[in-house]
Amino acid sequence: MNDLSNKPCIICVAITGSLPTKANNPAVPISIAEQIESTHAAFEAGATIAHCHVRDDEGKPTSDPDRFAQLKEGLEKHCHGMIVQLSTGGRSGAGQARGGMLPLRPDMASLSVGSNNFPTRVYENPPDLVDWLAGEMKAHGVMPEIEAFDLSHILKARDMWDKGQLATRPYVQFVMGVKNAMPADRDVFEYYIKTVHRLFGTDAPWCAAGIGPAQIVLNEWAVSMGGHARTGLEDNVRLDKDRLAPSNAALVARVVDLCGKYNRPVADWRTARAILGLRAA
Length: 281
Known about the structure:
This protein is of the alpha/beta class. It has helices at 32-45, 65-78, 127-139, 151-162, 186-200, 214-224, 248-261, 269-276, and strands at 11-14, 49-52, 54-55, 61-62, 83-86, 108-111, 116-117, 122-123, 143-148, 171-176, 206-210, 228-231, 238-240, 243-244. Strand 9 (143-148), helix 4 (151-162) and strand 10 form a beta-alpha-beta unit.
Protein backbone atom coordinates (compact mmCIF):
# COMPACT_ATOMS: atom_id res chain seq x y z
CA MET A 1 0.00 0.00 0.00
CA ASN A 2 1.30 3.45 -0.91
CA ASP A 3 2.06 5.83 1.95
CA LEU A 4 -0.80 8.34 1.92
CA SER A 5 -0.04 9.86 5.31
CA ASN A 6 0.99 13.16 3.68
CA LYS A 7 -2.17 13.44 1.56
CA PRO A 8 -5.09 14.88 3.52
CA CYS A 9 -8.49 13.87 2.19
CA ILE A 10 -11.16 16.52 1.61
CA ILE A 11 -14.65 15.21 2.36
CA CYS A 12 -17.52 16.84 0.47
CA VAL A 13 -21.07 16.33 1.78
CA ALA A 14 -23.91 16.64 -0.74
CA ILE A 15 -26.60 17.45 1.76
CA THR A 16 -29.91 17.49 -0.09
CA GLY A 17 -29.86 17.32 -3.88
CA SER A 18 -32.95 17.68 -6.05
CA LEU A 19 -34.53 14.23 -5.84
CA PRO A 20 -34.50 12.64 -2.35
CA THR A 21 -37.54 13.28 -0.18
CA LYS A 22 -38.51 12.50 3.38
CA ALA A 23 -40.52 9.62 1.97
CA ASN A 24 -37.21 8.15 0.82
CA ASN A 25 -35.52 8.90 4.14
CA PRO A 26 -36.87 11.13 6.94
CA ALA A 27 -33.32 12.41 7.54
CA VAL A 28 -33.20 14.24 4.18
CA PRO A 29 -33.02 17.96 5.07
CA ILE A 30 -35.49 20.00 3.02
CA SER A 31 -35.98 23.41 4.67
CA ILE A 32 -33.13 25.90 4.99
CA ALA A 33 -33.06 25.41 8.76
CA GLU A 34 -32.87 21.62 8.37
CA GLN A 35 -30.07 21.92 5.82
CA ILE A 36 -28.02 24.19 8.09
CA GLU A 37 -28.46 21.84 11.05
CA SER A 38 -27.61 18.74 9.00
CA THR A 39 -24.57 20.41 7.44
CA HIS A 40 -23.30 21.58 10.82
CA ALA A 41 -23.37 18.00 12.10
CA ALA A 42 -21.58 16.79 8.95
CA PHE A 43 -19.00 19.58 9.34
CA GLU A 44 -18.30 18.48 12.92
CA ALA A 45 -17.99 14.89 11.66
CA GLY A 46 -15.24 15.87 9.19
CA ALA A 47 -16.77 17.30 6.00
CA THR A 48 -15.24 20.54 4.74
CA ILE A 49 -17.19 21.14 1.51
CA ALA A 50 -20.97 21.49 1.49
CA HIS A 51 -22.51 20.83 -1.93
CA CYS A 52 -25.84 22.65 -1.82
CA HIS A 53 -29.22 22.60 -3.53
CA VAL A 54 -32.35 24.38 -2.30
CA ARG A 55 -36.05 23.49 -2.35
CA ASP A 56 -39.21 25.60 -2.54
CA ASP A 57 -42.05 25.63 0.01
CA GLU A 58 -43.41 22.41 -1.49
CA GLY A 59 -40.05 20.67 -1.27
CA LYS A 60 -39.42 20.82 -5.01
CA PRO A 61 -36.01 21.79 -6.43
CA THR A 62 -35.43 25.43 -7.32
CA SER A 63 -32.60 27.75 -8.31
CA ASP A 64 -34.08 30.66 -6.32
CA PRO A 65 -31.13 32.97 -5.50
CA ASP A 66 -32.87 34.23 -2.35
CA ARG A 67 -33.04 30.73 -0.92
CA PHE A 68 -29.43 30.08 -1.83
CA ALA A 69 -28.52 33.36 -0.10
CA GLN A 70 -30.29 32.28 3.09
CA LEU A 71 -28.56 28.91 3.05
CA LYS A 72 -25.14 30.41 2.32
CA GLU A 73 -25.53 32.95 5.13
CA GLY A 74 -26.55 30.25 7.59
CA LEU A 75 -23.69 27.94 6.67
CA GLU A 76 -21.12 30.71 6.93
CA LYS A 77 -22.48 31.62 10.36
CA HIS A 78 -22.78 28.13 11.84
CA CYS A 79 -20.01 26.29 9.94
CA HIS A 80 -17.25 28.89 9.89
CA GLY A 81 -14.58 28.08 7.33
CA MET A 82 -16.53 25.35 5.57
CA ILE A 83 -16.36 25.61 1.77
CA VAL A 84 -19.78 26.48 0.36
CA GLN A 85 -20.38 24.98 -3.08
CA LEU A 86 -23.67 25.85 -4.79
CA SER A 87 -25.16 23.65 -7.49
CA THR A 88 -25.88 24.90 -11.01
CA GLY A 89 -27.37 21.52 -11.90
CA GLY A 90 -30.14 21.12 -14.42
CA ARG A 91 -32.80 19.55 -12.19
CA SER A 92 -33.26 22.84 -10.30
CA GLY A 93 -33.88 25.19 -13.20
CA ALA A 94 -33.49 25.82 -16.90
CA GLY A 95 -31.12 27.96 -18.93
CA GLN A 96 -29.38 30.85 -17.27
CA ALA A 97 -31.64 30.54 -14.21
CA ARG A 98 -29.30 27.71 -13.23
CA GLY A 99 -26.59 30.28 -12.54
CA GLY A 100 -28.71 32.98 -10.91
CA MET A 101 -27.01 32.42 -7.55
CA LEU A 102 -23.45 32.92 -8.80
CA PRO A 103 -23.39 36.67 -7.98
CA LEU A 104 -23.62 35.55 -4.33
CA ARG A 105 -19.92 34.66 -4.73
CA PRO A 106 -19.89 31.24 -3.06
CA ASP A 107 -16.48 29.62 -2.69
CA MET A 108 -17.33 27.08 -5.38
CA ALA A 109 -20.07 25.99 -7.77
CA SER A 110 -20.63 22.79 -9.68
CA LEU A 111 -20.13 22.96 -13.44
CA SER A 112 -21.22 20.15 -15.75
CA VAL A 113 -19.47 20.75 -19.06
CA GLY A 114 -21.31 18.24 -21.25
CA SER A 115 -24.55 16.32 -21.62
CA ASN A 116 -25.29 12.69 -20.80
CA ASN A 117 -28.16 10.35 -20.07
CA PHE A 118 -29.84 10.20 -16.67
CA PRO A 119 -32.26 7.47 -15.50
CA THR A 120 -35.33 8.91 -17.28
CA ARG A 121 -34.08 11.93 -19.22
CA VAL A 122 -31.17 13.59 -20.94
CA TYR A 123 -29.11 15.83 -18.67
CA GLU A 124 -28.67 18.71 -21.07
CA ASN A 125 -25.65 20.98 -20.81
CA PRO A 126 -25.47 22.74 -24.18
CA PRO A 127 -22.18 24.44 -25.06
CA ASP A 128 -23.56 27.98 -24.98
CA LEU A 129 -24.94 27.49 -21.46
CA VAL A 130 -21.71 25.85 -20.27
CA ASP A 131 -19.75 28.82 -21.63
CA TRP A 132 -22.11 31.29 -19.92
CA LEU A 133 -21.97 29.53 -16.56
CA ALA A 134 -18.17 29.37 -16.73
CA GLY A 135 -18.06 33.08 -17.58
CA GLU A 136 -20.28 33.94 -14.61
CA MET A 137 -18.10 31.89 -12.29
CA LYS A 138 -14.97 33.59 -13.53
CA ALA A 139 -16.54 37.06 -13.29
CA HIS A 140 -17.63 36.52 -9.68
CA GLY A 141 -14.52 34.71 -8.46
CA VAL A 142 -16.25 31.35 -7.99
CA MET A 143 -14.14 28.22 -8.36
CA PRO A 144 -15.86 25.61 -10.54
CA GLU A 145 -15.91 21.95 -9.68
CA ILE A 146 -16.07 20.06 -12.97
CA GLU A 147 -18.62 17.28 -12.66
CA ALA A 148 -17.41 14.59 -15.05
CA PHE A 149 -20.08 12.06 -15.96
CA ASP A 150 -18.01 10.95 -18.96
CA LEU A 151 -14.38 10.94 -20.10
CA SER A 152 -15.13 13.64 -22.65
CA HIS A 153 -16.03 16.03 -19.83
CA ILE A 154 -12.48 15.86 -18.46
CA LEU A 155 -11.08 16.62 -21.90
CA LYS A 156 -13.57 19.49 -22.29
CA ALA A 157 -12.34 20.96 -19.00
CA ARG A 158 -8.79 21.01 -20.37
CA ASP A 159 -10.01 22.75 -23.53
CA MET A 160 -11.83 25.39 -21.47
CA TRP A 161 -8.75 25.95 -19.32
CA ASP A 162 -6.58 26.37 -22.43
CA LYS A 163 -9.03 28.97 -23.76
CA GLY A 164 -8.98 30.94 -20.50
CA GLN A 165 -12.60 30.16 -19.62
CA LEU A 166 -11.51 28.77 -16.26
CA ALA A 167 -9.49 31.00 -13.97
CA THR A 168 -7.67 28.14 -12.26
CA ARG A 169 -6.60 24.60 -12.97
CA PRO A 170 -9.79 22.51 -13.05
CA TYR A 171 -10.85 20.54 -9.99
CA VAL A 172 -12.51 17.47 -11.47
CA GLN A 173 -15.03 15.20 -9.76
CA PHE A 174 -15.80 11.82 -11.31
CA VAL A 175 -19.48 10.86 -11.00
CA MET A 176 -20.19 7.15 -11.36
CA GLY A 177 -23.19 4.95 -10.76
CA VAL A 178 -25.92 7.08 -12.37
CA LYS A 179 -28.27 4.77 -14.27
CA ASN A 180 -27.73 5.09 -18.06
CA ALA A 181 -24.49 7.03 -17.50
CA MET A 182 -21.07 5.76 -16.38
CA PRO A 183 -21.29 2.80 -13.97
CA ALA A 184 -18.84 2.24 -11.13
CA ASP A 185 -16.14 0.60 -13.23
CA ARG A 186 -12.69 0.31 -11.67
CA ASP A 187 -10.77 0.29 -14.96
CA VAL A 188 -12.56 3.45 -16.12
CA PHE A 189 -12.00 5.06 -12.72
CA GLU A 190 -8.27 4.44 -12.93
CA TYR A 191 -8.19 5.80 -16.48
CA TYR A 192 -9.99 8.94 -15.27
CA ILE A 193 -7.19 9.47 -12.74
CA LYS A 194 -4.57 8.86 -15.42
CA THR A 195 -6.29 11.40 -17.69
CA VAL A 196 -6.46 14.06 -14.97
CA HIS A 197 -2.77 13.57 -14.23
CA ARG A 198 -1.86 13.73 -17.91
CA LEU A 199 -3.90 16.85 -18.61
CA PHE A 200 -3.50 18.80 -15.38
CA GLY A 201 -0.37 17.46 -13.66
CA THR A 202 0.33 14.60 -11.28
CA ASP A 203 -0.32 16.91 -8.32
CA ALA A 204 -3.79 17.94 -9.54
CA PRO A 205 -6.45 17.28 -6.89
CA TRP A 206 -9.53 15.30 -7.92
CA CYS A 207 -12.66 13.94 -6.27
CA ALA A 208 -15.07 11.07 -6.82
CA ALA A 209 -18.78 10.56 -6.16
CA GLY A 210 -20.78 7.34 -6.35
CA ILE A 211 -24.55 7.18 -6.59
CA GLY A 212 -26.67 4.81 -4.50
CA PRO A 213 -24.85 1.57 -3.61
CA ALA A 214 -21.81 2.86 -5.54
CA GLN A 215 -21.26 5.60 -2.97
CA ILE A 216 -19.23 3.57 -0.49
CA VAL A 217 -17.40 1.87 -3.39
CA LEU A 218 -16.27 5.20 -4.86
CA ASN A 219 -15.48 6.51 -1.37
CA GLU A 220 -13.01 3.68 -0.86
CA TRP A 221 -11.52 3.91 -4.33
CA ALA A 222 -10.96 7.65 -3.93
CA VAL A 223 -9.49 7.46 -0.44
CA SER A 224 -7.21 4.54 -1.33
CA MET A 225 -5.98 6.21 -4.55
CA GLY A 226 -5.09 9.58 -3.03
CA GLY A 227 -8.15 11.55 -4.15
CA HIS A 228 -10.92 13.35 -2.33
CA ALA A 229 -14.36 11.93 -1.58
CA ARG A 230 -17.99 13.01 -1.82
CA THR A 231 -20.77 11.51 0.26
CA GLY A 232 -24.19 12.61 1.50
CA LEU A 233 -27.91 12.03 1.28
CA GLU A 234 -28.19 13.63 -2.17
CA ASP A 235 -26.39 10.65 -3.69
CA ASN A 236 -27.45 7.84 -1.38
CA VAL A 237 -30.03 7.56 1.40
CA ARG A 238 -28.90 4.21 2.82
CA LEU A 239 -26.10 2.76 4.90
CA ASP A 240 -26.78 -0.61 3.28
CA LYS A 241 -29.70 -2.44 1.68
CA ASP A 242 -31.33 -2.98 5.07
CA ARG A 243 -30.69 0.35 6.81
CA LEU A 244 -31.42 3.98 6.01
CA ALA A 245 -28.67 6.46 6.77
CA PRO A 246 -29.62 8.32 9.96
CA SER A 247 -27.95 11.55 8.84
CA ASN A 248 -25.46 13.19 6.51
CA ALA A 249 -23.00 13.05 9.41
CA ALA A 250 -23.29 9.24 9.51
CA LEU A 251 -22.29 9.03 5.85
CA VAL A 252 -19.38 11.40 6.48
CA ALA A 253 -18.28 9.20 9.38
CA ARG A 254 -17.97 6.25 6.98
CA VAL A 255 -15.46 8.21 4.90
CA VAL A 256 -13.56 9.28 8.01
CA ASP A 257 -13.25 5.59 8.91
CA LEU A 258 -11.89 4.85 5.43
CA CYS A 259 -9.34 7.62 5.86
CA GLY A 260 -8.16 5.86 9.01
CA LYS A 261 -7.99 2.55 7.17
CA TYR A 262 -5.75 4.01 4.47
CA ASN A 263 -3.72 6.29 6.75
CA ARG A 264 -5.17 9.47 5.22
CA PRO A 265 -5.50 12.55 7.44
CA VAL A 266 -8.96 14.14 7.17
CA ALA A 267 -8.50 17.68 5.84
CA ASP A 268 -9.78 20.44 8.10
CA TRP A 269 -11.26 23.53 6.45
CA ARG A 270 -7.97 25.45 6.43
CA THR A 271 -6.17 22.54 4.77
CA ALA A 272 -8.99 22.02 2.28
CA ARG A 273 -8.92 25.68 1.25
CA ALA A 274 -5.14 25.55 0.84
CA ILE A 275 -5.32 22.38 -1.31
CA LEU A 276 -7.92 23.97 -3.61
CA GLY A 277 -6.33 27.42 -3.64
CA LEU A 278 -9.42 29.09 -2.20
CA ARG A 279 -9.54 32.41 -0.40
CA ALA A 280 -9.34 32.41 3.39
CA ALA A 281 -12.62 32.30 5.31
